[in-house]
């Protein structure tokens, strides 16, 4: 290897190492808590009889959910357009293209009064728009919002309170501004003006935001925190306990968790806040719920969390369970839906919090009293932007 | 309750799938992350690889080569994910994995982001050989086994890939 090649290798090692180190832990071993998984015969059944299993598994353990009606329209977006569709037929009813040449849409969220989308023309100039629909789902009005982000930052996740009064966003530094630095979460009062930024002493970002109906509590997950592996210890496993399985597979973390921050008053002159005051809630699932969390949201009333649990394989298969937890103690209160053949990711939900949006293989759907209902099929499920 | 553990062959190779997961899942996930650019996909392909190992472990001619199987499976699963991403989506536009996104630049810094973007522009085989050799620190023989190619191919591909990556990085300046 010559000197030039050695320099390339050094740069490659440095960059790839930095990317790799953003992962500090891995999920627990797939379906580890289902002891039946260990039996090879089940693996054979899964491969050979997937269709048969589906019909049986879809009806098992489904609780009562969804109080009100599901939203009439949903929005899907890419960099150039946000497209609005009917929830029952999938028919396109309206379209909001980028309002200026060079702008690219980013994040998408919804509230009772409309849809919210971020857009940027360069790496560090983010704008926000609110789109209201008419009675037929057409775009009735699109307006820019006044949101002033801290200098040198950009939003990486976003949520809106059900009444549309508060916009919450996780922040990272703009490209070229160096390392990301500490976690920051911003909240803007869209009705009265003014913003408040909460920062912590931990490096990383906050992600997967959701907000209570009144915008007072923001739930989120944290990234960039290193968790080391512990040594593999004993094999004696009390049935259904999370900690014991962590011992078997040597993974110290893996317990689903969500953080909740009381943002209090937000307005002009309210100043900054301490993200370190956020409360950690450990979600304690029952023993028959597989591990691995793929999204969590706080309910509109702030009393519960809805989470997608269970393994999701790269082909979309897996064992998905939508579970509701008590926001006070993190205890499981209800299984909303079980899917015996496909993994589920929680993408969002409506303003009431009663209608989760889930990704199931190459489908996006919702979970209601009648079980799972597909809204649309996608060719590229990863990175999808959807709200309702 | 006692959990049935899976022994991968003779007693001297009595490493269980659980042991392999504890020892190698993190490294394989990091490798998959660098290839794919997003963590969820990386975790998925690694867990799939371990599930595949579990299904096939009794059929492994040499259980000591379980790790070789895992590396190959991760590469194959990652290729499948990348192939799917190339398909046009009727609504979602081109997917940009988070690692290559503007957000990641804030985490990584411009220099590292430039390297990762250049790496992404390489042909799949060149990218894989560089990562296996210089990120995962595998030998030429181990890299050849993981990729299912000959050692000579690894050698020549490495040489071409280093040259190509160097040129791409020069273009960035």
UniProtKB/TrEMBL annotation, chain A:
Q: Which domain of life does this protein belong to?
A: Bacteria
Membrane spanning stretches? 37-67
Entry keywords, A to Z = Membrane, Transmembrane, Transmembrane helix
Q: What name appears for this protein in its UniProt entry?
A: Uncharacterized protein
Q: In which organism is this protein found?
A: Streptosporangium saharense
TrEMBL record, chain B:
- RNA polymerase sigma factor 70 region 4 type domain: residues covered: 113-165
Q: Which GO terms describe its molecular function?
A: DNA binding; sigma factor activity
> Which keywords does this chain's UniProt record carry?
DNA-binding, Sigma factor, Transcription, Transcription regulation
Domain RNA polymerase sigma-70 region per the UniProt entry, residue ranges: 20-86
Provide one Gene Ontology biological process annotation.
Answer: DNA-templated transcription initiation
Q: Does the keyword Electron transport apply?
A: no
Which InterPro entries does the entry mention?
RNA_pol_sigma-70-like, RNA_pol_sigma-70_dom, RNA_pol_sigma-E_actinobac, RNA_pol_sigma70_r2, RNA_pol_sigma70_r4_t2, RNA_pol_sigma_r2, RNA_pol_sigma_r3/r4-like, WH-like_DNA-bd_sf
* Record bears the keyword DNA-binding: yes
Any Pfam family: Sigma70_r4_2
The UniProt family comment states:
Belongs to the sigma-70 factor family. ECF subfamily.
Name of the protein described by the UniProt record: RNA polymerase sigma-70 factor (Sigma-E family)
Q: What is the lineage of its organism?
A: Bacteria, Bacillati, Actinomycetota, Actinomycetes, Streptosporangiales
């Amino acid at each position: 290897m010559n000197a030039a090649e050695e320099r390339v290798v050094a740069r490659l090692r440095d960059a790839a190492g930095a990317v790799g180190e953003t992962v500090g832990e891995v999920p627990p071993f797939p379906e580890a808590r289902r002891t039946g998984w260990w039996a090879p015969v089940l693996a054979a059944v899964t491969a050979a009889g997937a269709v048969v299993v589906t019909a049986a598994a879809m009806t098992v353990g489904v609780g009562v959910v969804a109080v009100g009606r599901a939203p009439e329209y949903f929005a899907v977006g890419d960099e150039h357009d946000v497209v609005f569709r009917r929830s029952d037929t999938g028919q396109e009813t309206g379209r909001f293209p980028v309002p200026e040449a060079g702008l690219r849409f980013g994040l998408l969220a919804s509230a009772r009064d409309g849809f919210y989308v971020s857009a940027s023309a360069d790496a560090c100039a983010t704008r926000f728009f609110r789109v209201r629909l008419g009675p037929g789902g057409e775009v009735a009005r699109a307006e820019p919002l006044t949101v002033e982000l801290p200098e040198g930052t950009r939003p990486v996740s976003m949520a809106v309170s059900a009444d549309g009064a508060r916009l919450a966003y996780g922040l990272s530094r703009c490209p070229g501004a160096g390392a990301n630095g500490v976690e920051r979460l911003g909240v803007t009062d869209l009705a009265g003006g003014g913003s408040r930024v909460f920062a912590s002493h931990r490096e990383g970002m906050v992600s997967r935001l959701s907000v209570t109906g009144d915008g007072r509590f923001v739930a989120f997950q944290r990234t960039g925190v290193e968790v080391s592996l512990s040594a593999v210890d004993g094999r004696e496993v009390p049935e259904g306990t999370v900690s014991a399985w962590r011992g078997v597979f040597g993974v110290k973390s893996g317990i689903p968790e969500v953080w909740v921050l009381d943002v209090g008053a937000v307005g002009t002159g309210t100043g900054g806040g301490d993200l370190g005051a956020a409360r950690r809630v450990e979600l304690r699932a029952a023993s028959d719920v597989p591990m691995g969390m793929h999204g969590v949201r706080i309910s509109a009333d702030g009393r519960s969390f809805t989470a997608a649990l269970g393994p999701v394989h790269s082909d979309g298969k897996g064992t998905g369970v939508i579970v509701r937890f008590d926001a006070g103690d993190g205890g499981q209160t209800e299984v909303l839906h079980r899917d015996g053949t496909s993994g589920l990711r929680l993408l969002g939900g409506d303003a009431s919090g009663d209608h989760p949006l889930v990704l199931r293989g190459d489908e996006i759907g919702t979970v209601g009293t009648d079980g799972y209902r597909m809204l649309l099929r996608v060719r590229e499920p990863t990175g999808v932007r959807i709200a309702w | 309750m006692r959990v049935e553990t899976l022994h991968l062959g003779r007693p001297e190779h009595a490493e269980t799938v659980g042991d392999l997961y504890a020892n190698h899942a993190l490294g394989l996930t990091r490798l998959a992350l660098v290839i794919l650019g997003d963590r969820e996909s990386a975790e998925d392909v690694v867990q799939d690889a371990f599930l595949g190992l579990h299904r096939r472990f009794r059929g492994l001619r040499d259980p000591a080569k379980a790790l070789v199987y895992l590396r190959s499976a991760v590469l194959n699963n990652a290729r499948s994910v990348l192939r799917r991403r190339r398909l046009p989506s009727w609504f979602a536009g081109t997917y940009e994995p988070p690692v290559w996104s503007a957000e990641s630049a804030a985490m990584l810094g411009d220099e590292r982001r430039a390297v990762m973007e250049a790496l992404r522009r390489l042909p799949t085989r060149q990218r894989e050989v560089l990562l296996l050799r210089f990120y995962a620190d595998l030998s030429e023989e181990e890299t050849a086994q993981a990729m299912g190619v000959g050692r000579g191919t690894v050698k020549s591909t490495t040489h071409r890939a280093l040259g190509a990556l160097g040129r791409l990085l020069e273009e960035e300046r």
